[in-house]
Amino acid sequence: MRIYMEENGRQKINVHLPSGLVFNTVTATLAAAFVKGQDGERYTGEQLRKAVQAVNEYRKSHPEWVLMEVQSHTGQLVEIRL
Q1: CA-CA distances (angstroms) from residue 54 to 20, 46, 62?
Q2: What are the sequence ranges of the domains in the chain?
Q3: 9 phi/psi in degrees, rounded to 5
Q4: How confident is the model at residue 79 (pLDDT cuts 50, 70, 90)?
Q5: How far apart are CA 4 and CA 12, in angstroms?
Q6: Is 81 helix (H, G, I), strand (E, B) or coil?
Q7: Which end of the chain is more exposed for a tag (fewer CB within 10 A), N or C?
Q8: Which long-range contacts (CB under 8 A, 24 or more apart) does 9-18 make?
Q9: What is the DSSP letter of 10?
Q10: Is pTM, for the whole model, over 0.70?
Q11: How far, rounded to the nearest angstrom, does the alpha carbon of residue 70 sit from its chain's CA centroid?
């Protein structure tokens, strides 16, 4: 996973995180205690583990997939890639 930030065309931050640390079953199980759906219902650890497995499979077949991209009106860019 890579987090990339730039401001006015100049690179400010470029952070590389191993995807295995972010998307694993232990993280999914721990996140189940904090993540809520739109209806306020909590997700189970099993549901989040399945989601993590799906992300990992997709990541293998689509490297450099942009997970999130945000650009402000002042020209700041934040991009998270898998």
Answers
A1: 13, 12, 12
A2: 2-81
A3: 80, -5
A4: confident
A5: 8
A6: strand
A7: N
A8: 9/75
A9: E
A10: no
A11: 13
Q: How many residues does the chain have?
A: 82
- Going edge to edge, which strands form the sheet with 10-16? 10-16, 2-7, 76-81, 66-71
Give 78's strand partners. Answer: 5, 70
At 7-39, the pLDDT tens digits run 777 778 888 888 777 778 888 878 877 777 777
DSSP-derived secondary structure letter, 42: B
Give residue 66's pLDDT.
87
Say whether 18 sits in a helix, a strand or coil: coil
d(CA 33, CA 29) in angstroms, rounded, equals 8
Reduced to 3 DSSP states, what percent helix, strand and coil does the chain have, rounded to the nearest 5?
Answer: 35, 35, 35
Give the tens place of pLDDT for each residue, 46-59.
Answer: 888 888 888 888 88
Q: Which of 16, 14, 18 lies closest to 4 in space, CA to CA?
A: 14
